[in-house]
Amino acid sequence: MSLAMTLPGRAATPALRALGGAVILLLAWELAAQRLGGAYLLAGPVEVARWLTENPGLTGRALAVTLWNGAAGFVLGNLVAMLLAGAALIWPRSQPVITGLSLLVFCLPLVATGPILRVLMGPGNAPQIALAALAVFYTTLIPLLVGLRAAPAVWFDLVRSYGRGRMAELRHIRARAALPYLFAGLQIAAPAAFLGAMVGEFTGAERGLGVLTIRFLRALDVPGLWAVCSVAATVSILAYAGIGALARAVLREPPPLILSMPSTERAPHALVSTALVAALALLIWWAGMEAMSLNPFFAKRPGDVLDALLIAPDAAETRARLGAALSETAIFLLPGYVAGLVIGAALAMAVTLLPAAGALVLPLAVALRSVPIVATAPLIVLLLGRGALGTITLVGVMVFFPTFVACLHGLRQTPGQIRDVFDCFAASRLRRLVDLQIPAMLPAFFAAARMAVPAAVLAVTVVEWLATGRGIGSLMALSASLSDYDMLWSCVLVVAVLSALGFAAIAGIERRMLSRLAPEQVRQ
Amino acid sequence: MPADPPPPDILCRGLAKVFPGGVEVLSPLDVALAAGQTTALVGPSGCGKSTLLRLIAGLEDPSAGSILIGGETPDHMRRQAAISVAFQDPSLLPWRSLRGNIALGRKLARLPADQALVDRLIRLVGLAGFEATRPAALSGGMRQRAAIARALASAPRLLLLDEPFGAVDELTRRQLALDLPPLWQERGTTTLLVTHSVSEAVFLADRILVLSLRPARIVADIAVPLPHPRLSDLADSAGFHALASQVSTALARGVAA
After folding, report:
1. Rounded to whole angstroms, how far apart are CA atoms A445 and A439?
2. Which of B:120-179 have CB within 8 Å of A?
3. Spatial contact of A451 and A369, defined as CB atoms under 8 Å apart
């Protein structure tokens, strides 16, 4: 049966399952709220609904502001991503530099970028929009770069055999082949833009859902906090689902899953492009500040940061404070990251062995994956406290959902012909899992692990910023409030570089795995 | 007095191809293919038949030697949309319907749309009724027939067919072998056909080049003096069998060499 013929019939069932999952979730939430009544921890859906009906104006105004900021950032970030992808296509040699610089920007800790943008851009919505754009452009750029090359070589041979050039390739093949990838990127970008706008509002805005969140957290207004976070989660789910529905309406093929970076760079080239990325990043940083004649008191140049970290009389003390904060953060970050990955992959495998459970869990997990977990950080802090458990859980949850969903899809995306071979031998589910599905899942697992690095850093810094008073997030919050811009910029630089290195390390392992397991994805 | 042989349309001189890593696929070849003729390339698997076809299409650069098509380079002829290739892989675009894929052949060649021709080609390759169907819903053989129709849609001067009937069932293969040659003969198309099938080569071609194992060299150059149009009972004739036997012997010699 053709794909086109099977799609409409299959679309209804997941919707029903998602509804079933959502009802179960709401019931469990309400039950938990009833059990914890009076503990000032949890407001159930009934209480949340009541709060929302009593405060429609407040919520509506805040939502409108955040929605506008998120939407503007979404458009801006995705336009930048498309322009960069176009540049990389026209001039392929620029791709390592474009992706390297973009990764570095993507790894900037939003919680520190927020206050810096606020002093650079002044009051108003511009910093939130910029943060929303920063939160989305990389997640669109990477799939787009992959998608623009996601066509069999023979299709390009076909165009070339008629003597046509790159424009014809772009028009007839690349643009259309990239569409599913673009939609996959946009789908991730929609909630990410909302998250970016909210994080921007966490760090000093005047209006918006993020501002309400901070206000309710400080006032211990439990129903208000749960209501705002529920609205944020619902908007994100709707944005995610809306783009998914648009993609289904436009596309006939299923959405792509694996968003790996194609690269055939050899080690010496990789070293050269890394050095080039570093040099360009420093140059752009310096030239940007100089071109705008920004006050060096708050707009630190690379030289100022290097001075603060290496030369100034108190450089050793700065480094020691940074090191101590990073160690504190690492203690929460690494266990949460590893736990999120391991539990995500393990649960996906378990669900594969029990398909009935998977049918119920997957639509729910896909929906929850779209929730900006960081926007619900205050809830997790409220529930689990400001200690290690709350922070590790938040990082774990942030990593868990994308990993679980990616692994589950990966486990199901085994090639049909190979599956037939296992069918011929009536292989058990366990045998299929071990010999067929886990190897097929690994690329998805590594892609999730790679993208989870900046996400985990964001989660840990947000929770440290908002609640725990420890680690690098707290140091950034303190530096921002004390106008210690040397320290704030040093934090930004160190966190961005460490995140990018973590990302690159996972990407290196991923490429090795892909070249063995899915060589067609490593093709340039 | 015999007629003068037609002028060469494709001229390969000292053509060689070595892939990165030192894999020598073609040892220097000298080949001249006549205009308007159909030439079949046969040889063992992996001997370099498809590589030779890709070199002539200008999709690969030779390591040594030169190729001229009508006195021009393959690159120049591609830019003139004078070449069309039906690849071993049908390479249909999944988002286009069958008709859209076949019409793409004209679009890429910058030719005006010709619905009547596209419909005629669809009928010719036996796909009438599937015009609006997407490739995912077609069988392997149907896709391959669509790829042949696309290659014909631009009415190329040089038609390159890389095992075009590989995934086609026997009945359809016989029908296509009857229906397609008149089409390219009426247009005076020079055709180069890569095939594994000796009988297909004898049935379709005016000349058969038998290649050896890699690095490929020509071990036999066999003329097929059977008259056109060729009908299905030709395959039962003594002349056909004698030629097929000659090609098979040359193939065996090429493998043993």
Report:
1. 10
2. 133-134, 136-137, 154, 160
3. no
ipTM above 0.95, yes or no: no
Quickly count helices (H) and strands (E) in chain B. 8, 9
How close B175 gets to chain A, by Cα (Å)? 26
d(CA A116, CA A51): 34
Contact status of A158 with chain B (Cβ, < 8 Å): yes
Closest Cβ opposite residue B78 in set A163, A176, A252: A163
DSSP symbols for A9-67:
HHHHHHHHHHHHHHHHHHHHHHHHHHHTTTSSS---HHHHHHHHHH-HHHHHHHHHHHH
Q: Following CA atoms B93, B94, B97, B98 in sequence, which dihedral angle do they give, to the nearest 10 degrees?
A: 60
Contact residues, B window 23-52, toward A, CB-based 8 Å cutoff: none
Query: Does residue B108 sit at the A interface (CB-CB below 8 Å)?
Result: yes
Min CA distance, B234 vs chain A (Å)? 34
pTM over 0.80: no
Query: Measured between alpha carbons, how far is B164 from B38 in angstroms, rounded to an integer?
Result: 14
Q: Are A200 and A69 in contact (CB under 8 A)?
A: yes
Q: What is the dihedral of CA B182, B185, B189, B194, to 10 degrees?
A: 60
Residue type, A450: R
* β partners of residue B194: B41, B162
- Residues in chain A, total: 524
Please report residues of B whose CB lies closer than 8 A to that of A175: none
Determine whether the interchain pair B107/A2 forms a contact, defined as Cβ–Cβ distance below 8 Å: no
Encode chain A (524 residues) as per-residue pLDDT tens digits.
Answer: 333 333 344 445 666 776 777 788 888 888 888 887 666 677 888 889 999 999 889 889 999 999 999 999 999 999 999 999 999 888 888 888 888 888 888 888 877 888 888 888 888 889 999 999 998 888 889 888 888 887 888 888 888 888 888 888 888 888 888 888 888 888 888 888 988 898 888 877 888 888 898 888 788 888 888 898 889 888 888 888 888 889 888 887 665 654 455 454 555 577 787 888 888 888 988 888 888 888 888 888 888 988 888 888 988 999 999 999 999 999 889 999 999 999 999 988 888 888 777 666 766 676 666 666 666 677 777 777 777 888 888 888 888 888 887 888 788 777 665 666 666 566 777 877 877 788 778 888 888 898 888 888 888 888 888 777 788 988 988 888 888 888 989 998 898 888 888 988 888 888 887 776 655 444 43
With an 8 Å Cβ cutoff, are B85 and A158 in contact? yes
